């Protein structure tokens, strides 16, 4: 079925009636759903784009890309549920013809409506009505992480009842995701660990990065593009704010905001010139509306409205009084900047009441947002939809006020507090929780990404609202695959008692998640460590900054707000522990030595106060581990586990500390305790699998990673680690398949590194290098990847490029050693890089430091083998090889290591392998 002759034919269970219209990415037909007896609109991908790659009106757009964009539109819109967004019923394919079944609308596009009245503008009341409705719908999309990127009159529909609908999400994209490597030397505090093979059998624990849309690509329609879009720069929600401003300008004035005889001229106008105020073109436009539109059209994203809901609020107020001129056009930019500065001063110096006032002044109105609409609809339903079993929940980061860091931090602190208290309810239940801090650390803001990264099947979204002197804390529980809102609630709290919102939020969420709270759990849930509401508010805000530990400004804000909390309540142990953690994180970034003692003093004081719980010991244990005092770290993490038997962070950190002391039996038992605590949660199995992998017990590691895949089949991580284990087990066919499946779910540095190692061990050094390059692109700060790349290039005949890679690896490794100078693993690797560069003296000095740091493990012993062999000392190399094999190093890796090819005919080498 294609561009003609479609009428009267069947497409699956739809009877096509007539053609409604067409666009660059699809034709639209009126059709009847014969199963349900309703009329729908069918959007079909044209035959010109599906017949063959590169065919049709756009020869650069092949079938694969066209299908990807077509399906992306359906998935983007299917994740949304709002009366201002055209509803998607189904996406399917019939006899090779992809199609989307959607809501059939009665009316016309805004472009058609404007053409009817051209060149006259629309009445101001209609401009305001449309603006409010479109901004509300945009907010719903942005709440789900969807950016439209092609907002224009042709993609806006006005129904016969004057309701605005956003159409055509074909160019929409999910917000980009980026990850940062945790600082070296810190204990493993969250689930950020993955196995990654290196060419010589080394391993690492990398993170990755994934982006659905490449920066630099130009998409959208020129006349309505934002300046950053016209320049091909990365985009966020504020690009849609600009486009909506251009639409409002056109409907208010009857002319486009940016004009020119060519596309280049229009782009130049968008980037370099401001249009006249709408009130100067049309005298009926009130100054207030003209100012709102002009603010939307600001060249710099930070000078625009930061959220669609803020824009909607201003339009709504103008709709009540269209003659309003409340926003001065002459001082617009200065007002925004002064307000921001004043708000920061008040926030940091005035506790309690002023904090609440500042918070409430910027909170999203409930009746205007998707979240609150969904929560209200759910509450009205007599039957709540069933939840999946087992539940794997993510608490999504708070994103209600991206223009205000303080409010965002407060919301994130509230999300973290909710997560921590829900985690305490997981033992003995078919219910697991991934902390919001993990999502923020990897900049994950959408539920779909959380599903692919963590295997989540439910998401919980928090919102804040001010209404008639009270604060409403609302939440919605959303199905991860369908994006359907399942359950939720809206909780009113007095402005003077914001802290009570946390208790009521936990109780309500527990009910919605079918978690019956026992009396002792209710009592335990009420502990906050302070009687001061204002101090606790500052504490929540301060802890909300901590996951962004690589940002010095955020760390400074964390320290200031936590200090404010302690001024209000000097006996607040949790705030002291958080202050210690913030000081340590700042030290890791700045290397300012006095911060170490400040951190240690805060951690100790938290413990002395006796009300910090496990957090005080986690704080001191993190500091001990980061400075190489592993025995003290074990002591502190043991106490943390005793005080909070539900803390994943405490178990993982304790196990790592045991491993650093070579107490591997104790480490294994600790990981197993974590699994026993929550046997349906994949994280414990993944951690134990990584432990087995580092111990080179690859079959046990594979068993654990197989369990990860079973419990989280939508997550890329399990497949990547499973592939790494299969590389170690010489199951290359299975490894390549698993790693490619992982990359198909989400490209990650870990999977690329493992795939590169598979090719390296197969002797395909060029393909190995290609994959290691991809790993370095995703995480250019990981020294291991540069070392792996150097090995692949060295043995692939690209010696000059290899030397550059080794030099980069040395620099990054030495930077990591500044945090923990006694890390034997890093020392061993850096010494190996020096040996490849021919720096014999430096290589041996680093190796001596590594060997002197404690009992060397088999990886370090094998590194010593490689180093001495590279330096031409074969006899010494074979001595170290004997020790590495005795410690359990893999003979398979030895046999496939090209750096040992010169030893293959040596009788001593052959004898060693025969013994194994």
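-> sequence recovered:
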């Amino acid at each position: 079925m294609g561009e003609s002759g479609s009428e009267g034919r069947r497409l699956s269970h739809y009877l096509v009636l007539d053609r409604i219209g067409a666009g660059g990415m699809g034709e639209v037909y009126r059709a009847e759903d014969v199963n349900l007896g309703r009329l729908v609109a069918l959007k079909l991908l044209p035959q010109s784009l599906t017949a063959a790659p590169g065919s049709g009106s756009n020869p650069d757009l092949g079938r694969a890309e066209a299908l990807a964009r077509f399906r992306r539109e359906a998935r983007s819109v299917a994740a949304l549920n709002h009366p201002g967004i055209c509803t998607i019923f189904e996406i399917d394919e019939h006899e090779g013809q992809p199609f989307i079944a959607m809501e059939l609308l009665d009316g016309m596009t805004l472009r058609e409506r404007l053409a009817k009245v051209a060149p006259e503008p629309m009445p101001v009341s209609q401009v305001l009505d449309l603006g409010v409705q479109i901004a509300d719908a945009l907010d719903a999309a942005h709440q789900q992480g969807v950016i439209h990127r092609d907002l224009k009159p042709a993609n806006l529909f006005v129904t016969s009842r004057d309701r605005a609908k956003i159409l055509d999400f074909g160019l929409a994209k999910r917000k980009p995701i980026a990850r940062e490597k945790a600082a070296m030397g810190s204990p493993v505090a969250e689930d950020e660990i993955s196995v990654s093979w290196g060419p010589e059998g080394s391993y690492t624990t990398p993170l990755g990065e994934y982006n659905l849309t490449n920066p630099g690509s130009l998409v959208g329609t020129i006349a309505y593009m934002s300046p950053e879009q016209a320049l091909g720069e990365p985009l966020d929600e504020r690009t849609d704010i600009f486009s909506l401003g251009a639409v409002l300008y056109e409907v208010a004035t009857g002319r486009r905001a940016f004009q020119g005889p060519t596309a280049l001229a229009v782009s130049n106008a968008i980037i370099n010139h401001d249009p006249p105020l709408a009130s100067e073109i049309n005298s009926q436009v009130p100054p207030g509306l003209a100012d709102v539109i002009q603010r939307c059209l600001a060249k710099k994203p930070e000078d625009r409205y930061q959220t669609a809901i803020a824009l909607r609020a201003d339009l709504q107020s103008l709709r009540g009084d269209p003659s309003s001129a409340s926003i001065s056009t002459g001082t617009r930019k200065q007002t925004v900047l002064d307000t921001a500065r004043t708000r920061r001063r008040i926030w940091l110096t005035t506790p309690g009441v002023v904090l609440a006032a500042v918070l409430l002044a910027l909170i999203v109105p409930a009746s205007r947002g998707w979240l609150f609409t969904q929560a209200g609809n759910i509450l009205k339903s007599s039957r709540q939809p069933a939840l999946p079993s087992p539940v794997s929940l993510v608490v999504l980061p708070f994103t209600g006020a991206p223009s205000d860091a303080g409010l965002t931090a407060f919301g994130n602190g509230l999300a973290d507090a909710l997560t921590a208290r829900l985690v305490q309810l997981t033992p003995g239940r078919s219910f697991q929780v991934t902390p919001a801090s993990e999502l923020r650390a990897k900049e994950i803001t959408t539920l779909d990404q959380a599903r692919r990264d963590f295997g989540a099947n439910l998401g919980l979204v928090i919102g804040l609202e001010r209404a008639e002197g009270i604060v409403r804390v609302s939440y919605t529980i959303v199905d991860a695959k369908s994006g359907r809102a399942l359950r939720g609630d809206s909780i009113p709290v007095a402005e003077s008692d914001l802290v009570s919102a946390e208790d009521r939020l936990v109780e309500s969420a527990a009910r919605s998640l079918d978690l019956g709270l026992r009396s002792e759990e209710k009592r335990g849930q009420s502990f906050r460590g302070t009687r001061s509401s204002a101090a606790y508010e500052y504490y929540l805000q301060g802890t909300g900054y901590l996951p962004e530990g690589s940002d010095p400004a955020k760390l400074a804000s964390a320290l200031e707000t936590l200090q404010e909390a302690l001024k209000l309540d000097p006996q607040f142990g949790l705030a002291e522990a958080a202050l210690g953690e913030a000081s340590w994180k700042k030290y890791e970034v700045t290397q300012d030595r006095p911060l170490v003692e400040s951190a240690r003093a805060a951690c100790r004081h938290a413990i002395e106060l006796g009300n910090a719980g496990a957090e005080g010991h986690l704080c001191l244990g993190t500091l001990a581990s980061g400075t190489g005092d592993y025995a003290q770290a074990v002591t502190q993490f043991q106490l943390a586990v005793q005080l909070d038997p539900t803390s994943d962070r405490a178990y993982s950190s304790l196990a790592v500390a045991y491993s650093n002391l070579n107490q591997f039996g104790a480490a294994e038992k600790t990981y197993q305790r974590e699994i026993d605590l929550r046997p349906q949660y994949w994280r414990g199995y993944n951690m134990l699998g990584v432990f087995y992998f580092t111990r080179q017990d690859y079959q046990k590691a594979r068993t654990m990673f197989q369990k990860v895949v079973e419990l989280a089949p939508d997550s890329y991580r399990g497949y990547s680690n499973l592939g790494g284990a299969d590389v170690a087990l010489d199951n290359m066919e299975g490894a390549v398949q698993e790693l490619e499946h992982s990359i198909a779910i989400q490209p990650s540095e870990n999977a690329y590194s493992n795939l590169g190692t598979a090719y390296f061990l197969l002797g395909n050094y060029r393909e190995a290098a290609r994959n290691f390059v991809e790993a370095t692109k995703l995480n250019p700060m990981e020294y291991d990847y540069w070392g792996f790349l150097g090995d692949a290039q060295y043995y692939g005949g690209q010696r000059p490029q290899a030397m550059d890679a080794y030099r980069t690896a040395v620099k990054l490794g030495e930077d990591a050693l500044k945090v923990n100078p006694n890390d034997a693993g890093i020392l061993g690797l850096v010494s190996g890089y020096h040996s490849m560069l021919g720096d014999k003296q430096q290589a041996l000095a680093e190796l001596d430091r590594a060997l002197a740091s404690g009992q060397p493990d088999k990886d370090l012993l094998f590194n010593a083998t490689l180093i001495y062999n590279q330096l031409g000392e074969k006899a010494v190399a074979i001595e170290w090889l004997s020790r590495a094999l005795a410690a359990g190093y893999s003979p398979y890796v030895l046999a496939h290591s090209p750096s040992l090819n010169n030893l293959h005919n040596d009788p001593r080498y052959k004898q060693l392998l025969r013994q194994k």
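Confidence is low (pLDDT under 50) at residues 50-61, 176-197, 200-220, 321-382.
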